[in-house]
Amino acid sequence: MSKTLIRGAKVLGGEPQDVLIDGAVVEAVGRNLSAEGAEVVEADGKVLLPGLVDLHTHLREPGREDSETVLTGTRAAASGGYTNVFAMANTFPVADTAGVVEQVWRLGQESGYCDVQPIGAVTVGLEGAKLAELGAMHESAAGVTVFSDDGKCVHDAVIMRRALEYVKAFGGVVAQHAQEPRLTEGAQMNEGVVSAELGLGGWPAVAEESIVARDVLLAEHVGSRVHICHLSTAGSVEIVRWAKSRGIDVTAEVTPHHLLLTDELVRSYDPVFKVNPPLRTERDVMALREALADGTIDIVATDHAPHPHEDKDCEWAAAAMGMVGLETALSVVQATMVDTGLLDWAGVADRMSFKPAQIGQATGHGRPVSAGEPANLTLVDAAYRGQVDPAGFASRSRNTPYEGRELPGRVTHTWLRGKATLVDGKLT
Amino acid sequence: MQRHLISAADLTRDDAVLILDTAEEMARVADRPIKKLPTLRGRTVVNLFFEDSTRTRISFEAAEKRLSADVINFTAKGSSVSKGESLKDTAQTLEAMGVDAVVIRHSASGAPYRLATSGWIDAAVVNAGDGTHQHPTQALLDAFTMRRRLVGRDAGLGKDLDGRRITLVGDILHSRVARSNVDLLHTLGAEVTLVAPPTLLPVGVETWPCEVSYDLDSTLPKSDAVMLLRVQRERMNAAFFPTEREYSRRYGLDGDRMAKMPDHAIVMHPGPMVRGMEITAEVADSDRCTVVEQVTNGVSIRMAVLYLLLGGNEPAVSHARPTEEK
């Protein structure tokens, strides 16, 4: 078995230590470990994290291979320090049957860059009318535990109630894309001062908050757990905080872009800033950061949403919603949470690896960096500063809102069960 | 002046007054037996209309022709756009044919801004109305009409609308005319009041440089000009107001309400009017109503804008040398 010695790495941001990988497992963590028979990686004070886990990725395959495939998406994931991604169900065909989730799962296995855990649709065709075969997807080889109609809201209260109840039978969780459809007809951006000026259809905060409020109450009523996707408003934070204080089993995620960007950017009418839920206000951004720091929001999830160039190189209303995020997520979290003093690296490991793995019941991921654990690891050069250049992305798509923006930190190495998928910033 | 005209908010007070003054010069051309200037001879202007609009397109076309520009009309219907061609490709195709300016009307807010700022084309861009965003030449022609009526045709030269009280009534939420007018009238020193049912005002309107009222009757006596905006009947179905009748009872301008306005005050409408909805025939056909004047003034304003954007430093009318080529 091959051995790798990572020398002088700040494990979860702590004092520098050596980490020895033997085969697929962490053999030892300590000082002055022997390099005998091992390939040495000089970490030189870089931060070592457990491999990141993304609970919310759009890999687009099957159906939209022009924007991303499982292979290109997992390469992007490895490049961003991820060892496990959860692939959203809004593919073509929709991942609402055992057949489709098994296909995605198998493609992930073949890619070798990152484990892919398919998410199953809650309703047939994401149409919100009829439950998909949740049990069959769970029992398939893909072993689906997370269900979501993401991109669309499970808006019908009865369907949502039934889904929450039904998945209890096998310990599943419903991840809700909280968007009241009637309140967001023709919605193009956050409803507020900027939308009023720009004449773009408003996506009001209340359209998210009303669904979040309803769903935590439903989860409480039926004694199930619910996960809120890409929470984006200060009001949603308050509701989730209240629900948790009441003992309701709710978890929530925030995207990197909602931690950094605001709707002021929409003034450029550049669709690279068009995303759903939309970029909100400075006040929301600050509330989200605070909530991620205090644990009200459990995790960071990318909502990596690749789109081909032509779907963004057009007028705002015609453009697709979404941004790629796998390759910039950690840098944005460092900029907004670590460099601001809101979270230390152990906190980052918790929000980007331990907790998402827990919510998604990922096996072998989100484990501590200690002897006997699977060697899913990410090495980060936190001192690095550089401009985002989409030309260097491994993703097939380039729709990043950060082009040309200076961001801190750079993932230099990623190991998936001991096998290096990224070395010195280059995919293997 | 900037290279493009995208939003009324981009105009400084001096820019706006220059356009109004230039439009007065252009208006004199209309009084001549031959209503034509050689200013834009050899320049090509395309009217790129992705949204149905007869009056605005014809107004621009008349303005372009009076300035001797070569005019290309492009409407989306029956063109490659309906076959799925993108705005970018359409614009680049037209520019490749040697277009100097693009006058664009588009249903998507921000489309003219994208056209002007994305590096797709080099031509000057004039916004002829985009979605529910802006319609700057409409605001300019409205301000021109107000200045003529409220300040005076000659007395108004070089002046703005300082202290004039302007009331806009109707569907503010969906109106690019309202947004453009609020921006421009504020820049010109006027005091603007918006009157509408709360459902037809955008969230965020409280940050606009104007007053907001739900009550038309109390606003009328304090108005030097009342501009009515068209209210589409379809809005009723989306629950913006209960019925047409209730809307006109509360927000429509009829003869009785017009009588509450000061004697000098005018009634304006950007057209097309919905008689019986926001305005009664009695008001629409009265001497105080400037609807037809606004149309005439629209041509002068658009001539002024095109001249200032494309004519460069050449003098316009007063010193025009029609025999000399540029």
TrEMBL record, chain B:
Associated pathway: Pyrimidine metabolism; UMP biosynthesis via de novo pathway; (S)-dihydroorotate from bicarbonate: step 2/3
GO biological process: 'de novo' pyrimidine nucleobase biosynthetic process; 'de novo' UMP biosynthetic process; amino acid metabolic process
Domain Aspartate/ornithine carbamoyltransferase carbamoyl-P binding: 3-147
UniProt-annotated binding residues for L-aspartate: K83, R176, R230
Annotated ranges, domain Aspartate/ornithine carbamoyltransferase Asp/Orn-binding: 163-309
Reactions mediated catalytically: carbamoyl phosphate + L-aspartate = N-carbamoyl-L-aspartate + phosphate + H(+)
Nucleotide-binding among keywords: no
Cellular component GO terms held in the UniProt record: cytosol
EC category name: transferase
Function: Catalyzes the condensation of carbamoyl phosphate and aspartate to form carbamoyl aspartate and inorganic phosphate, the committed step in the de novo pyrimidine nucleotide biosynthesis pathway.
Family classification: Belongs to the aspartate/ornithine carbamoyltransferase superfamily. ATCase family.
Protein name: Aspartate carbamoyltransferase
Species whose genome carries this gene: Streptomyces rubrogriseus
Classification lineage: Bacteria, Bacillati, Actinomycetota, Actinomycetes, Kitasatosporales
